[in-house]
Write a structure and sequence with these properties.
The complex is a heterodimer.
Chain A (H helix, E strand, L loop, with lengths): L6 E3 H9 L3 H10 L4 E4 L2 E5 H9 L2 H8 L1
Antiparallel strand pairs in A: 1-3, 2-3
Helix pairs in contact in A: 1-2
Chain B lengths: L19 H36 L11 E3 H8 L3 H10 L5 E3 L2 E5 H10 L7 H7 L1
Antiparallel strand pairs in B: 1-3, 2-3
Classes of the chains: A alpha+beta, B mainly alpha.
Chain lengths: 66, 130
């Protein structure tokens, strides 16, 4: 079995990954900067896409963005 | 009257005027006092310096975020923001844009801080753009 938590709360994700506050985190989630999944009313941030986002190298990130 | 306050230990009135050695002793005591004042002040300065050092950016492992702002990276690395942005533009420094903020993933930031910025063959570009 893989490591368990694949989602974390949006404020946690914002703080951990990008140093954002609570409101900034939700704003980022709304913009799509923090990938999320909604379960009922609950909004959760997806860990793996966040990791990938940070691991993308400069060239790769630029290539994807272009 | 005058004589009472002359030395650190007041002389009884019956004694003749203080011997020159006593005056020298008093002066020595005053000088000593000034010296200790100075050391106290120095200590204060030192402790303030230490406090400032404690306020300085903590080692990387203690920062809570997995990404670092360009400003912070430049402050720690001692290079200019424009150089950092130039590297980002050239693709030699990875970055993530969150809203308006551009962040450097801390893995990359750590590497830059440990080994310096990657080889910069783009200085010509920097100059041309100015």
């Amino acid at each position: 079995m893989e490591r368990l938590p694949r989602t974390i709360s949006v404020p946690e994700a914002g703080r951990l990954y990008f140093g954002l506050g609570r409101n900034g985190s939700y704003a980022a989630a709304r913009r799509g900067d923090i990938p999320t999944i909604r379960l009922g009313r609950r909004l959760r941030a997806l860990v793996e896409p966040l990791e990938e986002k940070l691991q993308a190298t400069g060239d790769k990130a630029r290539g994807e963005a272009a | 009257m005058r004589r009472i306050c002359e030395g650190s230990s007041c002389q009884p009135k019956s004694l003749p005027s203080p011997a020159p050695s006593a005056i020298a002793l008093a002066e020595g005591l005053v000088a000593l006092g000034r010296l200790s004042d100075l050391t106290i002040r120095l200590e204060a300065v030192l402790s303030r310096l230490e406090a400032a050092a404690a306020l300085a950016p903590p080692p990387l492992d203690e920062t809570d975020s997995l990404a670092m702002s360009v400003n912070e990276l430049c402050r720690r690395g001692g290079f200019s923001r424009s150089l950092a942005y130039e590297h980002i533009k050239q693709g030699t420094l990875p970055s993530v844009t969150i809203g308006r903020r551009r962040l450097i993933p801390s893995a990359a930031a750590r590497e830059v801080l440990a080994r310096g910025l990657p080889e910069a063959p783009h200085h010509a570009d920097v100059r041309r753009r100015r």
